[in-house]
């Protein structure tokens, strides 16, 4: 994955481009001075990305807008966005980041966030190497209420294995939802996976990322306005056991 277009401020200086054997310039990869380590999967309008940027100045964050129908219907009703909603949401977040970078050019803020249009449920390992990420955020994912749709939920034993592959040992998966049934589902599936353990409530309460996640996402603000309840659970990536 060539991240240079998304993080131009972190392009490695005076570095030689690594190309394919046929020297096709279209395949050139421009290395960064640091790797992407935080992913917000289903980032909506980028509220969490923007809030986390100054709190995690030494990390590169990437957001991937949601593909779920429930959230797309909400976006349409709130913002009168056209039919090709997914592309436009991505473009909106990208434009928002460019504007923030321009407004804060002297301070160099918001250079560490970016937005990418991708289906993470299918292609997550195509974007990240093994043990690359320190944090993954799954904020207000589509609950898929019907039983026949549960296989499309963003948390499952299969998808949890992909999260485990791209996460560093000690990394944290952050989940939040306003649907208690979905919260129970996510907790159960992470508890059943051998690569994760649940973070204690005491540790959650002290985590700045949890505090930010509770109040800065667009869906979180809507739940707050409606005086709804938010259910949070965090899970730590465990060390892989030694081979026998």
Salient structural properties:
globular; 244 residues; 17% strand; alpha/beta
Explain this structure.
By secondary structure, the chain is α/β, with parallel strands linked by helices. A 7-stranded mixed beta sheet has the order 3-2-1-4-5-7-6, with helices on both faces. Strand 4, helix 5 and strand 5 form a beta-alpha-beta unit.
* Helical percentage: 25-40%
The H-and-E topology, N to C, reads as EHEHHEHEHEHEHHHE
Q: How many beta-strand runs? A: 7
Q: Could you give a short account of the major beta sheet?
A: 7 strands, mixed
Distance between the termini: 33 Å
The low-confidence runs, each spanning 5 or more residues with pLDDT under 50, are 18-23, 68-85
Number of helices: 9
Task: Offer a quick outline of the entry.
The protein is an alpha/beta fold and 244 residues long. 37% of the residues lie in helices and 17% in strands.
Layout of helices and strands:
Layout: E1 36-41, H1 47-52, E2 60-64, H2 69-79, H3 85-103, E3 113-115, H4 120-127, E4 133-139, H5 157-166, E5 167-177, H6 180-192, E6 196-198, H7 201-206, H8 208-216, H9 218-225, E7 231-237
